[in-house]
Each structure stands twice: as structure tokens, then as C-alpha cells.
Specification:
Helix content is 12%, strand content 44%. It is mainly beta. The longest helix has 22 residues. The chain is rod-shaped, with a radius of gyration of 53 Å. The chain starts with a helix and ends in a 5-residue tail after the last strand. This is YbbR domain-containing protein. InterPro entries: c-di-AMP_regulator, YbbR.
Length: 394
């Protein structure tokens, strides 16, 4: 194979030289006309300084491009590329609204050009600046513990600038602070972003400040007892141990100066007589202003208390004679030898013994009709029922 290339060398050289001569002839003598299309060529606005001086900007933002056809001798056309074509235009008497850009082009010499669309239409808007309120929002697991978040140096608004339509969309400037695991007041640097009324971020505007320092005050937590508030007509004999609460205390939250003044939380007024034994009732809590809590009500329930029955026997010497006078002959009072006393009391008051009950006869009693004295009792114990048999002298 190699040997074949080594043969007929003169003929091959002559053929190569002939091809070169022919190409030079075509380029030098014939040099045909050609047209080349350049698409998506960028357009430069020549009077941008004038727009800036008038606080105007192209909005919505668009890529200014057009197509251009370049024609000429093939030899000249080969020297033309995107880098040496410059398309530009000017906005005459720029003002807000729709404006025309009349396009021109610079191309290398000895070629002609044609811009496919020599007029572009753009919208101009005025650059405006307005103050918008700052809204600091908390996020994180303990965000509900934030009492107040304020921007350092008392700043409550931020300047927003940009195309008029976009600035008009801005409702407020939002900054988000992450409470994290903080339990004490803290300071943080947060970023700001403009949002519309629906909370969506507004693009293509600039903020006077991109971030601010915020001082975050957290609510103080405190556990306080719950106190039952009784109405004036409630049974005064009901004691605390006679009822149970679904919970004895609650956790309250609020500003430190408010929380520190609270030692307990009262319920709404309750008439204890409205609760039958062993039944329950939901009670709302009277939460002071400036205080929050997850507990809105509690349940109160009277205890089910066992009734104890006891029987005691008193002999004649154990009966006291009271209010004796010289004109009454005590020996003539016929007191039964044995007197039975049956009592009923609630288990929660403790044990009642015979010594806790005193039987007596009051001789100052008028017995003109019956000629018999009542046998009475006296006790300091809370006894539900007392039955004395017999309950009179003989």
C-alpha cells in the first residue's frame, strides 16, 4: 500500500497545484455574492444615560435582540461574525409607557445589511421610592413565647425603590427571627424581604437595608395554683377536702412585670350546692389581661364519701343535768337506765367516739304539759344524723 503512494508523485503535485490555482481564480475573479443570517443579535440602547437621568427603566425586563442579514462578496462575508456586528438604537423623548426603539447597525466594510425588524417596542417605568412598614415574624418550636420583637434603634419602616408597579405591590417588609431553644430575651441579625398582601415575595425592587438587628423579648412562664371562687350562697360546710380538681395548678405566660404580680388563678364563681355528691362540673378560669395559658377550664368533682354508722349506749350516770335550781328535785327525774345513741357521719371527718357526744337534760325546760324532759346531745363533730332512744325521761 505504501509503495503505491510513492508512485506517480509528479502527477499528484500537478493536481494539487491546479486545485489551488482554480480556487484562487474563483476568489479573485469570480468571488460570488452571498447572504448570511445572524439571529438573536443583542441590541444596545445608546441613550441609557438619559433614561437614568429621568429615573426611567425598561420594565418588565426583556432581552433586546433582533435578526440581521449581511450580504456581500464571499471573500468579505467570511470576515463577518457576531463579534463585529453592532446593533444599537435610541429611544427618542423617553417617557413612562410604551416607547419605540429605532435600530441601526454597524458592520465591517464592503458588505450590506438588513435588520429584519428595525423597530422594537419597550415599556418604561419610573423608578420610585417609598417607605414600607417592617413586620417581624417569629418561627421555631417556641415562637408562641415571643412577647415582642422590635428593630434596633426604633426603626419601624424601610425604604423600597424600583419600578413603580413593583413598589406598589409591596405591602410590607418581612423579617423572620428563629426563636430556637432560647428561653431568655436575645438579640439577632435577620434578613429582610418585601412581600405583597398575600405574603409572596416581590421581585425587582431594592431595600434601603437588607438586614436589621432585632431585640426579642420572650414571655415568662410561671406555674401557679388554681383557687375555687365560691358564690356567697354556697354551703359554708363544704371544705376543700370534699372535692377534687382535674388539675391543681396551671402554667401561665406573659410579660415579666405582669406574671410576677400573679400568685394564683381563680375559677369562675361556683355555687357548690349545684353539684350533687359524686357529680362533676366544668369551670372556666378567670385569666387576667396580658396572660395566656393552654388551660381554659378545669373540672371539679365532689368526692364520694362513705357514711359511717355507730351505736353507743349511755347509762344513767353518764347523763348530765344542766341548769339545776333549788326548787327542782333532781331525784324525782326518772332517767332511763340505758340510752341508745345511733349516729351517721362521713368518713372524711375522722373517727367519732362516744366521748365526742355528750347527753344532757336541761331542767330549765318547760314540762308543764308532758311532765318529761328531752334528752339532748352536744358535740363539736360534724355528724349528719343523731337518733336518741329513748329521747325523753320516763
Amino acid at each position: 500500500m505504501i509503495e503505491r503512494f510513492k508512485t506517480n508523485t509528479k502527477i499528484k503535485l500537478i493536481s494539487l497545484l491546479s486545485a489551488v490555482v482554480l480556487w484562487l481564480y474563483v476568489m479573485a475573479v469570480v468571488d460570488p455574492e452571498e447572504t448570511k443570517l445572524f439571529e438573536g443579535m443583542p441590541v444596545t440602547i445608546s441613550n441609557m444615560d438619559e433614561l437614568r437621568d429621568k429615573d426611567l427603566v425598561i420594565y418588565p425586563k426583556i432581552d433586546l435582540t433582533t435578526d440581521i442579514s449581511v450580504s456581500g462578496k464571499l471573500s468579505k462575508l467570511q470576515k463577518v461574525n457576531k463579534d463585529n456586528i453592532h446593533i444599537y438604537g435610541q429611544i427618542n423623548n423617553p417617557m413612562e409607557g410604551s416607547n419605540d426603539i429605532y435600530l441601526r447597525a454597524n458592520t465591517p466594510g464592503q458588505v450590506t445589511h438588513e435588520i429584519r425588524n428595525n423597530i422594537l417596542i419597550v415599556n418604561l417605568e419610573k423608578i420610585v421610592s417609598e417607605q414600607k412598614p417592617i413586620d417581624i415574624q417569629a418561627e421555631g418550636k417556641h415562637k408562641s413565647n415571643v412577647a415582642r420583637a422590635t428593630v434596633d434603634k426604633g426603626i419601624d419602616s424601610i425604604g423600597v425603590s424600583g419600578p413603580r408597579s413593583q413598589v406598589k405591590l409591596v405591602d410590607k417588609i418581612v423579617g423572620v427571627v428563629d426563636v430556637g431553644s432560647n428561653t431568655n430575651d436575645f438579640t439577632a441579625q435577620i434578613k429582610l424581604f418585601p412581600v405583597d398582601k398575600d405574603g409572596n415575595e416581590v421581585k425587582d425592587v431594592e431595600l434601603e437595608k437588607s438586614s436589621v438587628t432585632v431585640n426579642v423579648e420572650l414571655l415568662k412562664e410561671k406555674t401557679v395554683p388554681i383557687q375555687i371562687k365560691f358564690t356567697q350562697d354556697s354551703n359554708p360546710d363544704i371544705k376543700l377536702k370534699d372535692y377534687t380538681l382535674s388539675q391543681e395548678s396551671i402554667v401561665i405566660k406573659g410579660k415579666k412585670d405582669v406574671v410576677d404580680k400573679i400568685d394564683y388563678i381563680e375559677t369562675e364563681p361556683l355555687n357548690i350546692n349545684d353539684i350533687a355528691n359524686s357529680t362533676s362540673k366544668d369551670l372556666g378560669l378567670s385569666i387576667p389581661e396580658g396572660i395566656s395559658t393552654d388551660t381554659k377550664y378545669i373540672t371539679i368533682k365532689l368526692k364520694t364519701v362513705k357514711t359511717i354508722k355507730e351505736s353507743f349506749v349511755y347509762t344513767k350516770p353518764e347523763i348530765q343535768i344542766r341548769n339545776k335550781t333549788e326548787d327542782i328535785d333532781i331525784s324525782k327525774i326518772d332517767i332511763p337506765d340505758n340510752i341508745n345513741v345511733n349516729i351517721e357521719y362521713l368518713e372524711n371527718i375522722g373517727t367519732i367516739t362516744k366521748e365526742d357526744i355528750v347527753l344532757y337534760i336541761d331542767v330549765s325546760q318547760d314540762i308543764s304539759e308532758t311532765q318529761k324532759y328531752d334528752i339532748k346531745y352536744e358535740t363539736e363533730s360534724d355528724i349528719k344524723n343523731v337518733v336518741i332512744t329513748p329521747d325523753k325521761t320516763l
